[in-house]
Design brief:
Elements lengths: L2 H26 L5 E13 L4 E12 L5 E9 L2 H5 L5 E2 L1 E2 L17 E3 L4 E11 L10 E7 L1 H14 L4 H6 L6 E9 L1 H10 L2
């Protein structure tokens, strides 16, 4: 084989090797890709308990050019509650079954949201009737991963079945990214919320 042929084969090999590596690097770190918006809010008084159950429909928009998997979303009353991790309720899918503790019904499988796509979920939780719920202050803390990141995570979990604890401790990597975002209100929800404010 001539030297030119060897160089051509080597160059082709490097190009083919670079494609998956470039794909992983491009999608590995996606900073704060999701936006959240309340599109519906209903209340259900608990009788005779002095509490109200709040039902929220939340639209999630992926603003990035990379698809992401939403692994969890925790809703807080405001930024202060988010900083102190005092959660109100969990984001879940529309078709999920209601549990005994609605605040802790979370996303069971990561939800795929395409690039520049949307997904609708719901959240519900109880509050004492005396509490004023200001939807304009809601804050979401969420975990997410891009497809290449999640693929490597799954491979890592599979490999962990055969690795010793000492080796696993050396590869303590945060595969899911975390971010915090304010929850926006749709025009209708904003007017309703302003009307209810004292």
């Amino acid at each position: 084989m001539s030297r030119r042929s060897k160089l051509l084969i080597t160059a082709l090999f490097l190009v083919l090797l670079g494609i998956p590596i470039g794909y992983v690097l491009y999608g590995w770190n996606v900073p704060e890709p999701l936006r959240f918006r309340v599109v519906a809010h209903e209340v259900e008084p608990e009788v005779p308990v002095p509490e109200t159950t709040h039902h929220l429909r939340i639209e999630v928009q992926n603003t990035s050019s990379v698809p992401v998997y939403l692994a969890s979303g925790v809703l807080f009353h405001d930024k202060t509650a988010a900083a102190m991790y005092r959660p109100w309720m969990q984001l879940t899918s529309l078709d999920s079954e209601d549990g005994l503790l609605p605040e802790f019904d979370g996303i069971r499988e990561p939800v795929y949201i395409p690039a520049h796509g949307t997904w609708r979920g719901r959240a519900r939780g109880r509050r004492p009737n005396a509490d004023v719920v200001d939807l304009s202050q809601l804050t979401m803390r969420y975990q997410y991963a891009s497809p290449p990141r999640l693929e490597i995570l799954h491979r890592y979990w599979s490999a962990c079945l055969y690795l010793s604890d000492s080796i696993k401790q050396r590869f303590d990597v945060e595969f899911y990214q975390r971010a915090t975002a304010p929850v926006e209100l749709s025009a209708a929800q904003g007017s309703v919320n302003n009307a209810k404010a004292p």
